[in-house]
Amino acid sequence: MEDVQEQQKSQPLGQEDESEIVTENVGFAQSVAPQDGSCPPIVDSKVEVLHDKVTKQIIKEGQGQKPSKYSTCFVNYRAWTESTQHKFEDTWHEQQPLELIIGKEKKEMTGLAIGVSSMKSGEHALLHVGWELGYGKEGSFSFPNVPPMADIVYEVVLIGFDETREGKARSDMTVEERIGAADRRKMDGNALFKEEKWEEAMQQYEMAIAYMGDDFMFQLFGKYQDMALAVKNPCHLNMAACLIKLKRYEEAIGQCSLVLAEDENNVKALFRRGKSRAELGQTEAAREDFLKACKFAPEDKAIAKELPYDG
Q: Which of 56, 64, 158 is nearest to 102 (CA)?
């Protein structure tokens, strides 16, 4: 595994974190949370009938192939009861994508799985699912709280899917296997970054981060926590670098802030957040980030360039 601190010392702040590149046959896509999310989006695209109890409307087209049976899919979604518009799940808010194995999903996820199996990586869609393929006649009175016979509306993004390479669900992997799977996706992202394919690189980094959810990170201590952060944090930093290239500065700030929550003195995170804040006209906040970054990397010319008036 790479050492994050060593990377900070040796690499220019505007570049991605380097590592050996391995390519796998995996579908990927970025999954930035859509706006608001308090109620289902209004969609005027064609209604596709996937099943007599499942319909789909595409909000944004995906790319590549669709997942096949037993594919491990990573999905972000929001779910509402159709009649009351009560939102009962939101993985964007929880920052924890759902891992869904097509053909092995829980009974209440049957309708969602039908919808996901029709999607391409990166596709953003609205699904309407009848109660028979959701939480059924009885509903759910624990978590999530879904009333009886409730039809469901899902807003879904298929982040990506893995056909066969890993061969296991995340929950069945050892810590080393899970970190290794994430690291391979990070390296694929680095290869795309070098080719200046910013969107495609972000798709790979987000897939890597999906292996490093909070439920997993909270279980780690000592060397395993260090190993995981050495993969996870560079993915957030590299996503920030891509987002800056794409002039999506608010999102870049969010990625940097996730790293700083774990490592408050991370120089790359401070620098990239400062750059993003400066672009948004948040001059004082940007200056604070640059000054703090300069404190920990006083010889760095890129930081010094942002503080020509500092004296």
A: 158
**β-bridge partners, 126:** 57, 155
Q: Which has the higher per-residue pLDDT, 48 or 219? A: 48
* CA proximity to 156, closest of 223, 66, 89: 89
* Residue appearing with tokens 């957030």: 236
Number of H helices and E strands in the chain, helices first, is 11, 8
Radius of gyration of the chain (CA): 21
Pairing of strands 26-27, 152-162: antiparallel
Residue 144, preceding peptide bond in cis (omega within 30° of 0)? yes
Read off the pLDDT of residues 41-100 as tens digits, 9 standing for 90 and up.
999 999 999 999 999 999 999 888 899 888 888 899 999 999 999 999 999 887 778 889
CB neighbour list of residue 203: distance below 8 Å, 6 or more residues apart: 28, 29, 30, 121, 122, 159, 160, 189
* CB-CB contact of 79 with 127 (8 Å): no
